Amino acid sequence: MTDATTPTGDLTSIPALLAHNAQTFANRPAYREKEFGIWQSWTWAEAAEEIDAIAMGFLALGLEPGDKLAVVGRNRPALYWSIAAAQKCGAIPVALYQDANAEEMAFVMEHCGARFVVCGDQEQVDKVIDVQETVHGIDQIIYVDKRGLRKYDHTHMNALQDVQAEGRAAHFRLEPILREREAVLDYDSTCVMLYTSGTTGKPKGVVLSNRNIIETAKNSADFDHLTEKEEVLAYLPLAWVGDFIFSMGQAMWAGFCVNCPEGEHTMMTDLREIGPTYYFAPPRVFETQLTDVMIRMEDAGRFKKRLFDHYMAIARKVGPDLLDGKPVSAGDKLRYRLGELFIYGPLKNTLGFSNVRVGYTAGEAIGPEIFDFYRSLGINLKQLYGQTEASVFITQQPDNEVRADTVGVPSPGVEIRIDESGEVYYRSPGVFVEYYKNAESTASTKDPEGWVATGDAGFIEESSGHLRIIDRAKDVGKMADGAMFAPKYVENKLKFYPNILEAVVIGAGRDRCCAMVNIDLSAVASWAERNNVSYASYQELAGHPLVLNMIQEHVEEVNASVTQDEMLAGCQIHRFLVLHKQLDADDGELTRTQKVRRAVIAEKFSDLVEALYSDAESIYTETEVTYEDGRKGQITATLSLRDAKVFDRAHQVAAE
After folding, report:
1. What helix, strand, coil percent values describe the chain, rounded to 5?
2. Are 559 and 572 in contact (CB under 8 A)?
3. DSSP state, 411?
């Protein structure tokens, strides 16, 4: 596994890599799943046998080459096996977000033309049945968890366990057909189809080949020296390209073990039990974990809090230098070791990060303060920059070259250029084949030479060769006075505060910036309890005067910080409000990967935006919301509008 441009031997597909691992790592663990509080484990040889049985069961049900097989549910070995089994049959797996509503699911299934759907449980089966009212191409529904499904019409529905049993029973008849299907797979065969998050419109189906996935997995695994000894926790959405490359591509290439938690509610416990060596999380996960830590420390006794603050100050001073191998005085080393004994070690164990050798975050920019917090603990957290269309990896941060303000150097095999407008372009073996049924978008995104437009604005530092991303190209604009407007830069600073979950900054083409803020319910509720602040709902807490005072302090601290960057000093927040509801993917305000849909928010909350740019001190608003059962409703609120203190550059320099 050494050549950078061509596969080794016949390892030109995921099924070929699976067969290789079943021989080379036969008795090493390949998958673990926690169910009913007990970890179950499968070796590579056992997993290969399970996948073969599923594949032959699919053949018995009539799955044909080129058919689309949708997969939806939480992370489970059976769903990863179904993806590999579909590939063995020459079919194309299409992963869906498990929290997608029926309408979103209907669009993807209709667009891709799914014939088979593998569901995790009854909830997903019910959504597929609803979808069938408008989508008529689904022939077979297959489910993993049998609970609640006994009395359903099983004319075109089967338990995966029964499909496997049928595959095993017909082994002698179907194995020759399966081997024929596998034999024709090559580097240019379609490996998977994944849909983009759709921040600006309908999601697009990104077609990725075996070449895209395997070359990217190989290059990125070599970059971080990943081996069969790694342990990963598979908890991110199956439909997200990051999970596919980590839990399928790299796992198949390197032969390491994929661990599936019992559910969202046990994720942190399971993370601690597994102790992954290779870990990925989007910024929001790291933000949430840091918020939980800060809440616990605020609730801790005075001595424990002082001890934590003392050693965290030492960690921030020398932790990153120790991690990067830079010189540190003997006294600081000793103090850091004591901190490791009393604070950092127990904290990393609580977070589940004791064994992390390589950690990554991506998806959107992470706040520098949050990033530095984890690095100071001795966790090798790095940033990568990627896209679905790139099979994830565009840039990565090499060890000992990790900084909060860059996303690293080009990943192995990747070329990068910046066009005249500042937009980032890349070319690599991981570049997608096409957008399914969308030649126009394919042509506008990828040119004939293979260069792909990222839609992000950035520049490459001459001194280090690192890429710096400013913001989404479409979001970077100008203020009315010509100053640069980059909302994400300010939003990330706001989200460093545990009390702030989300922020949306407005200001393009205007004379000043304003912001809409979501409080973090767990953090603010804990603060309210400590300060004897009573409330009956999220809405009441979000509008409490003391909460507004607290958020105003955070906004003004961010304004002072923003003035340190001359290029973006014009992005200080002049007015803000705290929203009466959390931004929600079910309401269309966020994507399923928790990215802000700015256009939707600008339209939905246009009355609030207008009020922010007026002299009003409050505004009454009505907002449509979607409840958990899918029903729509209206909530009303009167929101306070607050002015925030802004600073000039001279004031900031004097303060420093």
Report:
1. 40, 25, 35
2. yes
3. P
3-state secondary structure of 184: coil
Enter the tokens of residue 446: 């990828």
Q: Which amino acid is present at 17?
A: L
State residue 255 phi and psi, 5-degree precision.
Answer: 85, 25
The type of residue at 163 is: V
Where is 482: in which H helix or E strand?
Answer: none
Contact, 232 vs 256, CB < 8 A? yes
In this prediction, residue 47 carries a pLDDT of 98
Bridge partners of 260, per DSSP, are 33
Give exposure, 403-415, as e/b (b: 16+ Cβ within 10 Å). bbebbbbbbbbbe
- pTM for this predicted structure: 0.83
Residues 486 and 571 sit within 8 Å (Cβ to Cβ) = yes
Q: Which residues contact 18 (CB under 8 A, 6 or more apart)?
A: 44, 47, 48, 51, 84, 252
Topology alike, domains 14-227+235-254 and 283-472: yes
* Lookup result for tokens 């926690």: 34
Question: Topology of domain 477-655, per CATH?
Answer: GMP Synthetase; Chain A, domain 3 (3.30.300)
pLDDT in tens, 116-141: 999 999 999 999 999 999 999 999 99
Residues 225-248 as b or e (16 or more Cβ within 10 Å = b): ebebebbbbbbbbbbbbbbbbbbb
Domain ranges of the chain: 14-227+235-254, 283-472, 477-655
Distances (CA, A) of 459 to 292, 406, 425: 35, 10, 11
pLDDT digits (tens, 9 = 90+) for 158-186: 999 999 999 999 999 999 999 999 999 99
CA–CA gap between residue 359 and residue 641 (Å, rounded): 40
Distance of CA 126 to the CA centre of its chain: 26
Measured CA angle at 181 (ends 180, 186), to 5 deg? 110
Alpha-carbon span 499 to 547, nearest angstrom? 9
Helix residue spans in 25-121 (DSSP H): 44-61, 77-88, 102-112
Dihedral sign, CA of 166, 169, 170, 175? positive
Place of tokens 């990067």: 324
Q: How far apart are CA 237 and CA 640, in angstroms?
A: 37
Cα–Cα distances in angstroms (integers) from residue 227 to residues 13, 46, 232, 257, 481, in the given order? 19, 20, 12, 10, 53
HSE-up of residue 116 (Cα within 13 Å, Cβ side): 31
Closest by Cα among 173, 209, 290, 214 to 4: 214
Q: In CATH, what class is 14-227+235-254?
A: alpha beta
Integer Cα distance of 603 and 548 in angstroms:
24
> Exposed (0-12), middle (13-18) or buried (19+): which is 169, by Cβ within 10 Å?
middle
Backbone CA torsion sign across 158, 160, 164, 165: negative
Fold for 283-472, please state it.
Rossmann fold (3.40.50)
As a whole number of angstroms, the distance between CA 430 and CA 447 comes to: 15
Instruction: Mark 3-39 as b/e (b = at least 16 C-beta within 10 Å).
Output: eeeebeeebbbbbbbbbbbbeebeeebbbbbbeeeee
Q: Could you read off the pLDDT of 292-309 as tens digits, one per residue?
A: 888 888 888 889 999 999
Write the burial class of residue 628 (CB in 10 Å: 0-12 exposed, 13-18 middle, 19+ buried): exposed
Q: Which whole number is the average pLDDT over 628-643?
A: 89
